[in-house]
Design brief:
Elements (H helix, E strand, L loop, with lengths): L14 H19 L7 H4 L23 H11 L5 E8 L2 E7 L9 E2 L4 H14 L31 H6 L11 H8 L6 H4 L14 H15 L3 H10 L24 E2 L1 H12 L3 E2 L2 E2 L3 H7 L22 E5 L4 E5 L2 E8 L3 E6 L4 E7 L8 H20 L3
Antiparallel strand pairs: 1-2, 1-11, 3-4, 5-6, 7-8, 8-9, 9-10, 10-11
Helix pairs in contact: 3-12, 4-8
């Protein structure tokens, strides 16, 4: 991407976007008055013009060779969703579309839920690059020597940092098991290394484990000699000019590697743009490029994410896979990578089109039921159907 795309200044908005919206809205009103169809003015009048400020260089869909009518349809569909807070589209480094819904705002720091995991992955890559970690092949128990004499399942001695990153450590998903979920909510994670059973041999199968991500966060803090938030502030957040909000902690004060990180939608988009640019920001390599590529590889394929609520998690995306705390999928002709948090928090990387899409929404904090999954699926399908509509 040319360096000018990342400069911190604003450009004037194009009048063309407003004209397209106005013409389309007028046509729909006249059609309704003439009896040609229902009056749907409100649905067509969503103004997705980016707001000024915050150092983003703004443009329009047309100027970045993206069909404005497809973008309008995306935002009209978003306006019908009950729990979405924000929807941003960045193309070729420009913020080309932005709107806030249901009480959301540009200043709102959103609970990004499991999108946090992708930030944790970035911090692992930075720690490796700076020598705090020696290899992803390091054993998990090397960082928890106090647990060594408590391990009864010797397979746990083989769990590596890489297994945790890939969700292939052998630990089960907690979200559909009440006993495991209660253990996760206890906030005391080290005893769970022994208490939680392995359901598969390490490195053999994918299972979505929040604890694996939390242990990554604790490993990072121990290796770097500081808390995770301080390390992230110094080596990531300040360098990409984002302002972190709260970052939840466990019962022992460790920042959660699995969730509870708060950012504005725009700051989430900066992180997405960082990964779209192979870890580079304004000419500076923040996350090693090799790590970005390794993180976005697919290590587990054809993952079933419908869980116990298949009717409420019917998704328009397919070929779902997992890398190092990043998801991958396909919609139509396009493959993409994405960070995904409960409630439908999304940072989507569409490399082929040089595009980042960000969604924030009601996080449904600690609520894992059919209703929350229904809204989450609606947000995912919103983006999936938009990507599918894009010409190849």
């Amino acid at each position: 991407m040319p360096e000018h795309v990342m400069r911190r200044h604003l450009v004037r908005f194009s009048w063309r976007q407003h004209s397209l919206l106005s013409i389309a809205s007028l046509f729909l009103i006249l059609s309704a008055l003439a009896g040609w169809g229902p009056l749907i003015y409100d649905r067509s009048a969503v103004d997705y013009t980016p707001l000024p400020g915050d150092g983003w260089e703004v443009s329009t869909p047309a100027e970045q060779e993206l069909d404005p009518m497809l973008v309008m349809e995306l935002y009209c569909s978003a306006a019908e969703l009950e729990t979405i807070y924000s929807l941003l589209v960045v193309k070729n480094g420009y913020l080309i579309a932005e709107h806030y819904f249901n009480g959301g705002s540009v200043e709102q720091k959103n609970r990004l839920q499991s999108v946090t995991k992708s930030y944790t992955s970035a911090l692992v890559g930075i720690a490796l690059d700076q020598g705090y970690l020696s290899s992803v092949e390091q054993k998990m128990l090397d960082f928890f020597p106090e647990m060594a004499d408590q391990i009864t399942d010797l397979r746990k001695e083989q769990i590596t940092v890489q297994h945790l990153l890939q969700m292939r450590a052998g630990y089960p998903s907690e979200e559909t098991d009440p006993a495991l979920w209660e253990g996760l909510l206890s906030g005391y994670y080290l005893p769970l290394i022994e208490e939680f059973p392995l359901t598969t041999d390490p490195g053999t199968e994918f299972d979505y484990s929040n604890l694996s991500s939390n242990w990554l966060g604790i490993i990072l803090a121990q290796a770097c000699g500081t808390n995770l938030k301080s390390f992230a502030e110094e080596h990531l957040f300040s360098l990409i000019e984002v302002d972190v909000g709260e970052w939840g902690t466990d019962a022992e004060g460790n920042n959660l590697g699995c969730g509870d990180l708060h950012f504005t939608a725009r700051d989430a988009a900066r992180f997405g743009l960082l990964y779209l640019n192979d870890g580079e920001y304004k000419g500076n390599q923040i996350v090693p490029a090799d790590w970005v590529r390794e993180s976005l590889q697919t290590y587990s394929e054809d993952i079933n994410v419908t869980g116990e609520f298949p009717a409420n998690r019917s998704l328009s995306i397919s070929d779902i896979g997992y890398g190092y705390q990043w998801w991958s999928a396909r919609a139509g002709e396009y493959y993409f990578d994405f960070a995904w948090g409960h409630g439908g928090q999304l940072i989507v990387l569409l490399d082929e089109l040089d595009m980042v899409i960000v969604v924030t929404a009601d996080p449904f904090y600690l609520q894992h039921d059919a209703e929350s999954w229904r809204h989450e699926s609606a947000n995912i399908n919103l983006v999936g159907e938009f990507i599918e509509s894009l010409p190849s």
